[in-house]
Design goal:
- The structure is a single chain.
- The chain has helices at about 5-15, 30-40, 55, 75-85, 100-110, 125-135; strands at about 20-25, 50, 65, 85-90, 115-120.
- By secondary structure, it is α/β, with parallel strands linked by helices.
- The mean pLDDT is about 90.
Length: about 150
Amino acid sequence: MGGRGSGDLRSFMGHGEVQVLAVCDVKKAAREGIKQQVDQRYGNSDCRSYNDYREVLARDDIDAVLIGTPDHWHALICMAAARSGKDIYCEKPLSLTVNDGRAMVDAVTRYDRIFQCGSQRRSDARCRHSCELVRNGRIGQLHTVRVGVPG
């Protein structure tokens, strides 16, 4: 329930068609803090908190999951969620390896689940405009690209 996961969760709770039933984190303080926010949002104390994602996936009343874990957990939880019949929203990056990504796609396909990877920035108008400038040669000949990852 760190920065990205809790941010996504708050965004999801802004949609009337979404009802958050459970939160999960290995850190008790993180999950309990978010649970309080969920309960406050819905005006009750029905949200359950877990420290093991498998307990969330075992619930029949949960239709979809948000995976906002550290990157190395994405594939494992995604495949388990698909197998459990849950639809999935997974934060970027999709996976750490091509093989993990392939296994995720195979699981989602096999269990006929809906899947979305959170890569909204690529749809952002500024990013698209930048890509168009590069592709159309408007910034000149491109010869070096350096990429940094926050944190």
